[in-house]
Amino acid sequence: MTTADSRPSQAETTLNYDYTATQPVGTHFATYDHLRSQSPWYRNEFGPGFWEVVNHEGILQVLQDPETFSSSVVTAMDPDPQYKWIPEMLDGDEHRQWRRQLGPLFAPKAIERLDDTVRSRAIECVDAVADKGRCDFIADFAARFPSTIFLQMMGLPADELDQFLAWENAIMHSTPDPAGRDSAANAMGAVMGRFASVIAERRAEPRDDIVSKALHYEIEGRPVSDADLLSFCLLMFMAGLDTVTATLGWIFWHLADHPADRQRIVDAPDTISTAVEEFLRGYAIVTSARRVTTDTTVQGCPMKAGDMVNLPLHAATRDDAAFVDATSVDIARTPNNHIAFGAGPHRCLGSHLARRELRIALEEWHRRIPTYRLDPNVALYETGGQVGLQSLPLRWET
């Protein structure tokens, strides 16, 4: 770790790096692994300019101090967002009130009741490709499997899946040119319109779904407004359709390239839960952001009120100061107290559901397709921000 006596100069801790860019597979992890070896923090002058904290100690300090580091932003590239995802972008007591009411919906026992639904959906998705001998794992399985669970929880019909996937792709994976920005804006408008109609429908005729339950929430003694419900639905959409998809992509990329690890999972399915924790740690996908509320320092880095701070969680979970041989993936690693789901009061509310979906996906895929490999004729690329593979062509014998 860099000490005060050996800290690099200002020039050495200044970057101009687009962490959201599309790059060859593994680039983002390798970039931050290198940065962390040189300094615990940097000033990134790309875009609006922001601080990058790139080690476990510093990232944990920021995540666990919500009074100094506000969650009113979700990306360092947008320091003045014109949207508010609820409850992710709330601070203080307002955030606590939302979390307290949402907590029972995502508690372990509530998620356990979804087990049959999650498993049947995984089996359905595997069966759709098993006899073909090949697929684009991202498009054909990783995107479709968790998305149907999301639709059911929100009380939406399964036949809307393709439309929601198209909207999600336009928003999360659009190109940075004007056409891409327009496409993303149009998709976001369509999503908001769809959820606005869902809210109106549930007010008229409640059902047994998350939207209907949220209609009865109260914040500071007042019923939740339609505007806040819409912001909540948008967060559910963004979190529910892309996070598990991205993580599944990294898991199967790793297993396709590491046959010994894949065989261990096939031979001993009871090891899958431990392996999932290691995949979450080794390939943490989320890059969080915070806004500084008052002048402060993080590991000697001076930050002023209003500054933006970028927090690539994989820079924490792959830090040798926190984990032995941290950049290597050991699917038998234990203990494994990673922060791939974040830390502090904003730790991911959906972590129990994500773990269950990942575990069941691994179980059911390997029952039908125990051996598979990467398509050697396809170059793989990843996108930053939320680090995920664009595609993952796999092949196997039928």
Automatic annotation (TrEMBL):
Domain of life: Bacteria
Signal peptide range: none
Name used for this protein in its record: Cytochrome P450
The organism of origin for this protein: Mycolicibacterium madagascariense
GO molecular function annotation: heme binding; iron ion binding; monooxygenase activity; oxidoreductase activity, acting on paired donors, with incorporation or reduction of molecular oxygen
Keywords: Heme, Iron, Metal-binding, Monooxygenase, Oxidoreductase
Keyword Secreted appears in the UniProt entry: no
Family named by the database record: Belongs to the cytochrome P450 family.
